[in-house]
Amino acid sequence: MSLDLVIRGGTIATASDVFRADVGIRDGRIVQIGEGLGQASQVIDATGRLVLPGGIDSHVHIAQPSGDGIRMADDFESGTRSALFGGNTTVLPFCLQGKGQSLRDALRGYHALATGNCYTDVSFHLIVSDPTPSVLGQELPALVMDGYTSFKVFMTYEGLRLNDAEILATMDTARRTGALVMVHCENEDAIRYLIGRHEAQGDVGPRAHATTRPVAAEREATHRAVSLAEIVDVPVVIVHVSNGAALGEIRAARGRGRKVVAETCPQYLMLTAADLDGMDWEGAKFVCSPPPRNAAEQEACWTGLEQGDFDLFSSDHCPFRYDDPAGKLNPKGRTSFAHVPNGIPGVETRLPILFSEGVSKGRIGLSRFVALTATNHARIYGLEKKGSIAVGMDADIAIWDAGAKRTIAHADLHDGADYSPYEGIEVTGWPETVIVGGRVMVRGGELVGAKGTGRYVPRALSSLARQAAV
Ligand code: URP
Ligand code: ZN
Ligand code: ZN
Question: What's the gap in Å between 370 CA and the centre of ligand 3?
C-alpha cells in the first residue's frame, strides 16, 4: 500500500495505551499502525518522540463581538495559528447570537470569517442569548441536524444571561434534538450586588473582579444548572469549573445518576486571585470569569483532574490585548474592573502547561493527558473521526519532545494578544511537529503549512446526549 506519510520510530499514546509503532497516512487519514510499513512519499523520524492525537480545544473564543469599542485580539488566522503551534489540530469556537439575531445569520458571519483563514480544523458551538419560540422551536432543531450539536447558555453577563425559565426551555430543546448544553455557572444577581457595593466604596481595581465573583456565586449557579438539567432530564456540560465546591456539586449530581461533564482550564491550576493585584492596572491581564481562586482551589482542581472528576481540559482562550484602548485598558476599563473585558489568552499554552505540570511532574499519566486534551473532547462533542490515533481516524497528530525545556514568553507565541498570563513559567515538554489532516503544518517548530488548510467540521450528536433524545 503506498502511503503519503509515515511517522517512524515514535511512541504513540492514546487515551488507553502507550506503545511503540509507526503510523501510515494516506488521503488525510490514518490507514496503518504497526511495524515495517510500506513506502511513503514523506517520512518523519519520530525516534525519541511522543506521537499524540492533535489537541482538540473545545472552548475557545475567536473574533467574538465583545461590546462597544472592544475587540477580541484574535481572528481565525491568528487564533488557529496559535492553536496549531500549541499542538492543537481542531478548535471549537463559539458563535454568539446577538439579541434579536437569528442563529443562522450569526453563523453566516462566523463562517465568512473562518473560511480560508484557518490553520486547524474548526467546528462551532452556538451561544443562545435570545431563546425566542422560533429560535427554540425551529432554528435550533434545524441547526442541530446540520451539525451544530452543542450550545452554551450563560447564567451571568448582562445581555447574555438567561433566566431559569429560559434555561429550562433551551435545555428542553436540547433534550428533543439530542444536542448538548454547556452552562456558564455564576449567579449574576449576586455579582451585580457585590459590584455595586465595591464601586460605591471606590474599590474599583482589577482585584475586586475576583472578590465580586466569589466561589459561592459559582457553587450556587452550578447547583442550579445541574438541578435544571435534572428537571428537564438532559446531560449537561459545566464549563470552566474553578473550585472544589462547584466540583462537589457536580460529584453530588453524578451520585444521583445525572450525566454531568466537567471542564476546567489552565487558569484554575496556574493563577490565583493575587495575580489580579498587579501594579498600575496590570491585574487586568488576569480578569476572566470565573476568576482564578487560591492555592487550595488550585489543589482541588488538580485532585479533580487526577481522580477523573474532570472530563475536559480546555483553554477558554478569550484574548484581549492589554495595552490597547480596544482591550483591557479601554477608557471605561480604566475606571472600574467591571468594564475590563473578561477573558485571557491561552490556546497555545494549554497543552504544554498540562503536559509539564501534569505528566512531567507525575500527577497524571500520558493516557489521561490525551483523554483530557483530545479524546474526550471528540467523544463528548461528536467529532467522530478525531481525538485518537487509530486506523480510519483523521491524521491529526502532534509529535512532542517530552524533554524540551521552554520558558513561556509571549514573544514566542503566535496569538494576536500582547501578553501571556503565563509569562515566565518554565515548562518541560513541547509539541514540535503538528499534522492536520495528513498535512505537516508545523515542523520542528517552524510553520510549513498554509493558511486555509483547516476545514470546517460538522459534528454528530454527542454520544452522551443522543441517548436522551426522544
Ligand atoms: O472570562 C471569560 N471566561 N471569558 C470568556 C467568556 C466565557 O465566559 O467563557
Ligand atoms: Zn463562560
Ligand atoms: Zn469561554
Answer: 21
